[in-house]
């Protein structure tokens, strides 16, 4: 069951830029104001995770792609591209329904995601919980 | 491929549950028509089959003959009629008898909403365990009998998860007759993890037992509805009621109607008085809570103390005596949850427990959400229950999700149009409505 909301080609281009260009740190996506397509709301090169969390609004839904960098125990840096679905409880029910039923379209369009997170409050997408999940794998 | 593009026409959303049928316009925040799914009918034939029907309890009564009038809606089963019997097409959340369905839908759409279904696309909801034959039959009824221009059938589990903004969630839906736990992962129901039981019926039966059996603080309570009482005088709490029964009516009240009226009285009592303790069963805690006052239609009134919590406790635990006397008890909510989780991938379990969505009218049972939270927190590190505080959102979560979905302009490409139905037939339902 999907809403039929389309993914704007810009979403993919920006994602490719993040994946291959290695400059962008994160991308924030949202449903456009006329509820017909998913668009890029913001891109950032800031390495601050707190700044990223501040871009997830308290009462509206967003998707995000974050290029998560961490040190592996045995040394060496790793990068994992993470996909976030952000739907806080305070968002309007219509926004949440539209968001959840459109998720699949965006998620399927993005190739090369290493981990996915679904959050409704900041503790669920905190730096520690994301680090814990991404570093568990290889 | 846009087959149906009626941009200006608002769609209709219909959600058929065991106790009520909800219908309304897509985009609204509450259904316009809420009618009982239960209907009344007076058997036309004489003799043999009437007595046969009398023998069975509610649900087992003989289905009405085609020619008998169905009494539906507000003035349906709740209005007393001589020899009227009661039927309900929903068994275990699924439509079991399609005969009264067109009449019920017609009543909701034409009589209550005053709209013409031929002019509106219709989105219908179905339980996660609905059968393929059932949904195809529903599509057939909508296209062939109601001539709807377009149709879609959506799963209530997924609708509830989506309405909470979650692609993956563990949906706990407690209705009037069935409690279900549905794992939804990335917008799809995980079939093998889907479990449900008739738990609400056990809770209701227990509540009825509590009331009609004499106990230390109340005598046997007569569950007579106001339809059968001609007058009463107020009495002090705990005193025998003084009322006059309508003997003329009582004699011609069918057993199935009586069962229906009694269950309504039990429901009312449960909704106003019964609850569940937030920290598990404890005699002292139950005794420490305030007793609640309740008056029955007969005029009998009294205070209910710990027994009102014993009723709710059945959602979570079955006492040893009860389990010993009946090996086929409906599974409790914690059992349902652990069975659902056991069927899921271990990685998925933590995600599901962090995204529990509570819905259904039965989940409004006083204290149930808190208790569930406490029970689950004991066994899982990170539990988050999403339970809408607004009772309308909780009770009609599935309907509401369907309402929003069907109101989206972009959803039009997903409708099954009448033309497509005519061309492809039943197969298109399974292809389109995943």
From TrEMBL, chain A:
Organism superkingdom? Eukaryota
Q: What is this protein called?
A: Uncharacterized protein
Source species of the chain: Auriscalpium vulgare
Automatic annotation (TrEMBL), chain B:
Superkingdom is Eukaryota
Task: Name the chain's protein.
Answer: Actin-related protein Arp4p
Question: What organism is recorded for this protein?
Answer: Auriscalpium vulgare
